[in-house]
Amino acid sequence: MNRVYRVMGGVVLAALLAAPAAAADNKDIIDYRINIMKTLGEQAAAIGKISQGKVDNADNLALHAETIAINVAAAKKAFEAKVVGGTATQAVWDNWGDFITRFTALETAAKDVAAAAKAGGMDAAKPKMLGLFTCKSCHDVYRTK
Ligand code: HEC
After folding, report:
1. How far is the CA of 135 from the centre of ligand 1 (A)?
2. Coil, strand, or helix at residue 143?
3. How many angstroms separate the alpha carbon of residue 100 from the centre of ligand 1?
4. Range of the domain at 132
5. Angstrom distances, CA of residue 132 to CA of 8, 20, 114
6. pLDDT reported for residue 100
7. Distance (Å, rounded) from C-alpha 50 to C-alpha 72?
8. Residue range 58-89, pLDDT digits in tens
9. Which residue has the higher pLDDT, 33 or 1?
10. Closest Cα partner for 143 from 83, 72, 87?
């Protein structure tokens, strides 16, 4: 068993270490930023479960909010490559300043939620959570329907 895992691990590692043959192609660029956005979706859903009291994991709220902030920082970089596709429209790069300002606002809001959760738990964090719900307003402008 152990040996199988070691061999599999070797294959995965080899794939990870394989030198890129050429610059990332457009599909990779789009997939990569979608990987990051999916993480945002999962983390927002996790916060939803906590804030609706469906799970008793309020102690994790700050961690989820920090994960959102970190992933928004990654998203800002991931969208720098101007590749229209996935559901991202040309408007992203035509209105780059506005697009990044929206991401930065979400990043700041997520940091605020994390800080409030650490200081005062759910009661302190709840009023700040409105700042996290900017997803749809950005999607309405910058994604295909
Ligand atoms: C600054 C604008 C902006 C904000 C803010 C934003 N998104 Fe997005 N999001 C996008 C764009 C653009 C895409 C399309 C990416 C692509 O297809 O290349 C996207 C795609 C997605 C996807 C789809 C991934 C897939 O499966 O194709 C999810 C899920 C997602 N965002 C979740 C969120 C959540 C949750 C939030 C809020 C916490 C959020 N987004 C905030 C711009 C934004």
Report:
1. 7
2. strand
3. 13
4. 26-142
5. 39, 36, 11
6. 98
7. 21
8. 999 999 999 999 999 999 999 999 999 999 99
9. 33
10. 87
Residue 42 pLDDT exceeds 60 = yes
Which CATH number do you get for residue 40? 1.20.120.10
Give the Å distances, CA to CA, from 115 to 36, 37, 73, 109, 138: 23, 23, 17, 10, 24
Report CA(139)–ligand 1 centroid distance (Å). Answer: 6
DSSP state of 82: -
| Ligand 1 binding pocket, CB closer than 6 Å | 30, 33-34, 37-38, 40-41, 44, 86-88, 92, 99, 102-103, 106, 132, 134-135, 138-139, 142-143
Number of domains present in the structure of the chain: 1
